[in-house]
Amino acid sequence: MLSSNRDQFTSKLGFILAAAGSAIGLGAIWKFPYTAGTNGGSVFILLFILCTLLIGLPILMSEFLIGRRAQADTVSAFHKEAPGKPWFLGGWLGVTVSALILSFYGVVGGWILSYLFRAITFQLDGGSEAHYGELFNELISNPVEVIFAQALFMFLTVFIVQGGIKGGIERAGKWMMPALFIFFVLLAIRSLTLDGAIEGVKFMFVPDWSYLNMETLLNALGLAFFSLSVGVGAMITYASYLPKSETITSSAFNVAWMNIAISILAGLVIFPAVFALGYSPTQGPGLVFIILPAVFEQIPMGSVLVIVFFILLLFATLTSSISLLEITVSVFVKEKYAARRKLSWIVGAVIFIAGIPSALSFGHWSHITIMDKSIFDFIDYMTANVGMPLGALLFSLFAAYYYSTKITQQELNLSPAMYWIWRASVCVVAPVAIVTISLYNLFA
User: Fold this and answer.
1) Quick count: other Cβ atoms within 10 Å of Cβ 35?
2) CATH superfamily for domain 12-443
3) Is 109 exposed, middle or buried (0-12, 13-18, 19+ CB in 10 A)?
């Protein structure tokens, strides 16, 4: 029996901001711009919005339903809701995948801290894309700096999580997420006032229908799916701290639209500046670390704006890393609330150590490959293309098929028409989409 003293969010707003922070991470600010840039911009963005609302949102609602109903961590939730059944293995899958993601996510968080330090000390003054490319390669191949920065990022993550829901996660979300939104609006305004910025706006909002093809659709579907942070149990865990008096459907809608809004804002910060200064939007993953510093340097007050940008990127990365760590910590804490601080530091230390091979995979251990991929890329590939899709498939099917229609109707509190749209999505559309994405990513 779960304790009635289980920690909870003090408000619906606190829950929404924390859940949105989990979703709005590197996917929205790092991956969305470069994926949109390499897939033609406008058509990709339209497909991304549709896929988020029609497929990602119903899965998100399913995870909220399981977590809020069970009022337990990801593993205990399935033990409680399906006693004696093997569904709990899906919970352990989510815990494992979230820990693996955080092991290399912490490495990227360290890169951001290194860039932020360089920005604050005005060392980002190379003046060319080539210089920043060299800087990025030097950074990721420096074992001392990357491991130290990774440790610092993990320290920040654990420090917040060990404070619990009210004192740590909810408090961090309440100031990080509004700050993220306000700073992004300011940066977008500055970017849109550059000469030639209109070309970037056209790239985002004037459709080029030549990009309307299966590859663009699958890329948009994959980003929409993963950017909502479904499939690892994060949303089950967060919803377990939500009082049963709170509705979950409106919370899911709020998380979805906030994710879309921040993604679009990220595009409005990046693409107008990229086009105004003559760069290509098809730079790929290096867009943030290589192109943007060069772009900001050519903008008035660019040395200040680049600091703001990397602070934003740090906030977004932290809000996601917090949720990833909380998934694992909550499984071990259960009712032992007094042990949360100790367990948070232990779990964080283990994940940090597990991430060291990823940190070294661009330098001293670059010769080590698995399936022709570096250690970092292999873990990223397996979690994104195998672990998360399988987890999301299990969670959505559990909500749709294990629970009775009466229970899901009562929990979701939707109109009859909206309820059957949700059911059709999680029973048919989402599973087909997940299997299609997985097969495409594995064999394309």
Assistant:
1) 23
2) Hydantoin permease (1.10.4160.10)
3) buried
For 7-45, the pLDDT digits (tens) are 556 556 666 666 666 666 666 777 788 888 888 889 999
* Pairing state between β 373-374 and 369-370: antiparallel
3-state SS, residue 137 = helix
Instruction: Detail the DSSP E strand segments found in 289-444.
Output: 369-370, 373-374
pLDDT in tens, 211-238: 888 888 888 887 787 778 788 888 888 8
Task: State the CB neighbour count (10 A cutoff) for residue 221.
Answer: 23
- 160-167: average pLDDT: 69
In angstroms, rounded to a whole number, what is the distance separating the alpha carbons of residues 398 and 66?
Answer: 9
Per-residue DSSP letter, 177: H
Distance (Å, whole) CA 235 – CA 59:
10
Domain map (residue ranges) of the chain: 12-443
Distance set, CA 258 to CA 25, 311, 323 (Å): 12, 19, 17
| H or E element, residue 117 | helix 88-120
pLDDT at residue 93 in the model: 93
CB 284 within 8 A of CB 219: no
